[in-house]
Amino acid sequence: TTPWLQSSSVWADHPKTLEMQADDDVRILKSVLSELQKEAGGYSKLWLCGRSQGACLATLLAVAGVGPTVAGAFSIAATALPQLQDIPAGEIYSVPTQKKLSALRLGFYSGEEDQQFTHKRPGDEGGTFPLLKQTLTSFSGVNFWLKQGAGHNNIGPSNQYGGDAFKVLFAFVQEQDPATAGVPGVAAWGSASKAASATPGLVELTYPMPGFQASTDRDPALPGTVEVTVLSSSPPGEFGAKGTVVFLHGAGGSAQDYSDLWTRGGIDVPSGYTITFVQSPRG
Q1: H-state helical runs in 116-254
Q2: What is the distance in angstroms between the CA of the first residue and the CA of the last residue of the chain?
Q3: Distances (CA, A) of 280 to 41, 182, 262
Q4: Is residue 3 part of a domain?
Q5: Which of 144, 232, 266, 277 could, after both became Cys, cross-link 261 (CB 3.0–4.6 A)?
Q6: How far apart are alpha carbons 100 and 26 in whole angstroms?
């Protein structure tokens, strides 16, 4: 596997490593997004999405990592990283503008039994949803959904559990109700368009970063020369006019997992959209 960060089981014991790895990942991903937005038609067409560690980074990028306002973020099984809870001063992060506070759409989707990050269920006091809600209290467009009976791993998307989570994701992207996306057991916390035919195979895009200097060599370490692989449903020059979803995988997976799911027809991308899967460069 190629995780973005060290295991969440050691975050409390090694907070500085977590901070430095997240900083490096954000710097890398900002560079990748700078390239992808050219294909997508601007930052306003980008949707930053992910699962687990990837979801944590997607939220951080959308809120404080990328200066321009992206279309939104949809995070599956996520929590708030330290840099999201207290945005650091410096060149990596920026405090959200008033425009971003009012325009950015943020969606969170977790299994109701997921206790991965806080040892509490997402919707309970001390869980990830109250933490995220408190952290993002200044934003006007923050929404949460739970999947009944699901935990951290079996909410998907994955080869084992299928692509239902993408149905929920694309409902949110299209401003539809994820609770009516055709996935059983999904409900809003506190209270579908027909997809286009999938094109065979994902296109591999490569973004080298020859001058990148890592902040830490703690496992999982970055290679000496950083090169980021992106698997895309659209080739360069043909990204969807309605928007591009940038999806970051979780700690136990890789972008290839979603390539396999795509090949099996498990991902339905609505007409006019592109989905891209960014591979962590950590070995």
Answers
A1: 128-135, 164-173
A2: 8
A3: 24, 31, 19
A4: no
A5: 266
A6: 18
Handedness of CA 93, 98, 103, 108 (dihedral sign): positive
In a domain, 283, yes or no: no
With 0-12 CB in 10 A as exposed, 13-18 as middle and 19+ as buried, what is 2? middle
Bin 38: left if φ > 0, else alpha if -120 < ψ < 50, else beta: alpha
Residue type, 194: K
In a domain, 60, yes or no: yes
Q: How many domains does the chain have?
A: 1
* Residue span of the structural domain in which 273 resides: 8-278
Instruction: Identify any residues that bridge with 230 across adjacent strands, giving them in sequence order.
Output: 205, 278
- Is 113:149 a contact under the CB 8 Å cutoff? yes
- Residue 137 CB coordination number (10 Å): 8
What's the Cα-to-Cα distance from 203 to each of 151, 155, 182, 223, 226, rounded to whole Å?
31, 26, 28, 23, 20
φ, ψ for residue 244, nearest 5 deg: -125, 125
Residue with tokens 């060149």: 91
What pTM value is reported for the model?
0.81
Reported as a single tens digit per residue, the pLDDT across 209-252 is: 988 999 988 888 898 899 999 999 999 999 999 999 999 999 88
